[in-house]
Each structure stands twice: as C-alpha cells, then as structure tokens.
Sequence to fold (282 residues):
Amino acid sequence: MNLSKQVFQFLVAFSVVLYAIACTEQNSQKKHVGANGAAAPAIPDESKLIAIADTVYKGLTFKVYADAKLDNKYHTVYLQVKDKEGKPFNSSSLDYYPQMDMGLMKHGGPFEHPVALGEGWYRGSMVFIMADIPDMGPGWHLYTTLETKGKKDTIALKLPVSAAKTMRTMSSGTRDDSRVFISNLLPDTLKQGKHPIKFLMSRMEHHDFPPLDGYLIKLKTNMPAMGHGSSGNKDAEAIGQGYYEGEVNFSMAGQWEIIVELWKDGKKANQDDIKYQVYIIK
Fold:
C-alpha cells in the first residue's frame, strides 16, 4: 500500500472518530447524562409548553410553564430561571410548591418537589384540588424558595386555575386515613379499546397532602346509556409515591364512567362514591 493511500485512509478514519465524538457530545448535551451514566430528564421544548406566569426578583427572571392551561386537575409545571444577563440559573437549593389562598384560610395540594433538568429548568407535578374562586382571596400561587448567600428567599407567582370541564380529582372519607384525594390522570377523551390508567392518591393532613400508598384501587367501567360495562379491566396497584397503575377497557364509542373503589386490608375503605367521566371515540 503506497503512502498516499495510507494517509487517505487515516484521514477518513480520523474524520469518522471526530464525527462520532461530536455526535456523542451533542447527545450528551440533549440528554444531560448524569454522573452515574443514566440519562437525566430532558430539557423541555419551550414551544410546546403553555406560558403561565413570570416575575423578576433580585435580578433573576422566573417563568412558569405548564403542559396545558391550568385547571383543577393534575398538571406538570415547569419553572425556568435566568440571571440578569439572560443566562440559565441553576441551583440545588431551589424548591417550589402550590398554595391556595382563600382569604380566611390557606391550603396546599398534592405535589412533587421539582427535579432540576439543567439549563435553568425545573419540573414538578402537582394537583390543584379546586379552581380559583372569584372574590374569595388571591387564589393559587407557586411559592418558589431559593437560598443565596446563606439567605432563604420566597418568590410567589400567581397561577390562574380555572374549573375543569371534566372532574379528574375526587375526594372521599376513608376508614383509616380520614379524607383522601384521588386524581385520575386520563384525558377527557380517549379512543375505543384498552388503555393504561394512572392515579395519584394523597391524604389530607391540615393544609398538606402527603402521598398515600397501601391501597388497591378496584376499577369498573360502565356505559350508562347502554346499561353495560366492559371486561378486561385491571385494578390499579400501588407503584410508590402515591401512584397507582391499572388498565381500563372501553368496548364502544360514547360516554362512559369509571367507577372506583378503594380497598385496604381486604376491605372497602372509601365512604363516598368515586366516579370519573370519559368520552370514547372510534
């Protein structure tokens, strides 16, 4: 093999290596691979989110986004923080939580502490257990806490929460855990057939709502207009942190209801009826 051919092959191989390294770096930046090698949560596509609120505090800009316009349901809420130069602001001390101010009283709602996604983005899920009530207090806020230079600051951002068209969060008294809140994470409309179903269950403790495990959520589907249900439903079992997963089957198009029973230690525990409405299309 002559020298020129060897040089050519070397340059080709070297170019392939450089390309592979560049691709790896780009993928790493997109996925934000952590120190343990596992891919961290991805940075959200801002164009696919709904802008909810924003404010400026001590040179930092806080912007709240969500998966949809907020109503009294389960939502994924994002916070983006930038410094006065417009650069992403990352902090391991940042936290946030929802709170409803009704004037004479305040209460929170079920929520998950935010996960830092990188590039100034944070993500957390929460349930707004009721809509804002006109002329009854300021309503819902996202309270963001941040520690800088040994001092803890709290920033409040107003969250407009409207009444949901279809109820997805219900409450019931129980035998052992007082009043609990059960959020159904299904959309209002689904296609005919089988679907995984997920719930978040929380216990009410004064104004806090810690996650509640240890139950079995029994499921039954019913089509009131036709007077029948459907087979193939699987009861929702606890998977941790208050979440439960099961499966529901809708055998034809039309209006359906999902009837829920909470069971604990082999006995029915809910004291109130729990039903969710869902519209099925072909």
About this structure: Residues 3-31 form the longest helix (29 residues).
